[in-house]
Amino acid sequence: MKWQRMILRIALCLSIVTSFYLSYLIWLNPTKTVATTPIASETNTQGEMTTKNFRSLTDVFLPLQLVSVTDSQANETNSEQLIKSVLSEIGSSEMEQPKWTSYESADAFIEKTTIKNGFDFIFMNRISLNEAIDLFDLKLDLDAQLLDKELMFDQMSYNSETKTIHFVDAAKKSDLSANVTVDESEIATILKQEKVNWQRVTFTPELLLQHYLVDQPVQMKLYSYISTVQPYSVFRDSFFHTPQEATLSDDTNDLMLTDQSEVMTVQLDNRLVEYRDTDITGIHDNLYVKSYDYIRNLGMNYGNLRFLDRYENTLNYRIFVEGFPVFSNQNDGLVSMQFTEKAQNQDEWSVKIAASLNTIQIPIPSDKLIELPSNKSVLLDLQAQGLDLSRVSAIMVGYEWSDIKDTNVVDLVPTWYIKYDHTWQSQDALSQQLQQSAGEH
Fold it and tell me: Cα dist. 366→5, 43, 52, 223, 369 in Å?
């Protein structure tokens, strides 16, 4: 135990030094110097400026889980590297002309879309199929008739028995399928990688359509990190079109940077950043890609930032740890973007981005495990409290950001999160909401 206390003391000392340094960046840098610091960049062979240290499109938009199915026995993983490798194989596979099918009954839909051998990419969020083709560089062509349908999906499946790829939309009980040529031997090799955590799951459409759930309790690691405050220049350099042109104003209690139609306010007390641009175009091409343009240059400065979900024209990105999203009641580790169309059918938009200056940087070694109940038992318990399962679209493990008082240490506590009415809530928060609702009635 002595060595653990010693490591914790060293970590706390590092956090104090980091805090003083970041405070210096925010408070003591001369105004003109901070306002005009350019992005780290280089010139390519064509003379164009390119930015270093940016996250790739695939890294940011990875599926949340992969489920491998053999003879109807299913196992899931959140391993980012494994998911990325399998997705790359799918992206390089030629797909034939697709066929779209809509099902009247849930039973028919389940029967036709359930696989016994193959694998499923789980997104836990409906994604535009046309836009996903660009995101994952899929060799899939949609004809005009299919494009007009504005198809969505929340699960991408490969059926090794029929050699077909399926884009499944549980909400609409529809499926777009195509014959595909996949290197199954290469994928089998990827799936056998060592040091990948697999969890046995069971397909349970009677509770949640197109969902795999865990029957047994789950052992999850508790992580601890040193939290840091990012200098606002990190967000300025990522959000502004020409950050070197942004001017800093000290006329208000909060910091404000402006450049033509762009405004960024930094609330130092609350450690929040709000950016607005009232004059943007190109949204009709691909909203996901447009949102990615704003966060790509954050690189790893903000941690492992990934896309989590989208509702209408609002997209949320969160920090991920070991393949699981981090949630906070104070929106720590969150970047949220809201796009608003100003003129119908003219591709004139505005955007509002909200982000926290707080992030996690330095892990503290820990072997502590926490046992969670199965997510199947969680749903049944919440259902007994009045939960309407038809309003639940997903359930997954997330890490709850918990500040340790009077330190810069953050515990990341594994917790079940339920996506209820398009909003992610912890099991405890949703239970309290249901109990309060029951009391009002």
Answer: 11, 43, 33, 7, 9
Nearest to 53 by CA among 238, 207, 208: 238
d(CA 119, CA 274): 40
Query: For residue 102, what are its two tokens?
Result: 């809509």
What is residue 283's predicted lDDT score, i.e. its pLDDT? 78
Q: Is 285 helix (H, G, I), strand (E, B) or coil?
A: coil
**φ, ψ for residue 31 (rounded to 5)?**
-55, -45
User: What mean pLDDT comes out for the span 79-84?
Assistant: 96
Question: Using an 8 Å Cβ cutoff, are 298 and 234 in contact?
Answer: yes
Residues above pLDDT 90, as percent of the chain: 69
Give the whole-angstrom CA distance, residue 180 versus residue 130. Answer: 18
Would you give the distance in Å from CA 174 to the centre of its chain? Answer: 24
The predicted-structure confidence for 19-31, as pLDDT tens digits, reads as follows 444 443 433 343 3
How far apart, in whole angstroms, are the C-alpha atoms of residue 404 and residue 100?
52
Per-residue pLDDT reduced to its tens digit, 136-174: 999 999 998 898 888 999 999 999 999 999 999 998 999
pLDDT at 175 over 50: yes
Indicate if the alpha-carbon torsion angle 60, 135, 238, 312 is positive or negative: negative
Q: Taking the model in full, what pTM does it have?
A: 0.86
User: Do 179 and 95 contact (CB within 8 A), yes or no?
Assistant: yes
Contact 212, 76 (CB under 8 A): yes
Q: Rounded to an integer, what is the distance from CA 114 to the centroid of its chain? A: 25
What tens digit of pLDDT does each residue of 178-198 get?
A: 999 999 999 999 999 888 999
What tokens appear for 360 in the block? 């996690």
Return the closest-CA partner of residue 26 out of 272, 232, 226, 228. 232
Instruction: Look up tokens 């690189």; give the residue.
Output: 299
Query: Angle at the Cα of 390 (from 389 to 391), degrees rounded to 5?
Result: 85
Q: What is the mean pLDDT of residues 201-205?
A: 93
Q: How far is 24 from 30, CA to CA, in rounded Å? A: 10
- Asked if residue 90 lies in contact with residue 136, where contact means CB atoms within 8 angstroms, the answer is yes
Q: What is the dihedral of CA 357, 362, 364, 365, to 10 degrees?
A: 140
Q: Report how far residue 350's alpha carbon sits from residue 279's, in angstroms, rounded to the nearest whole number.
A: 6
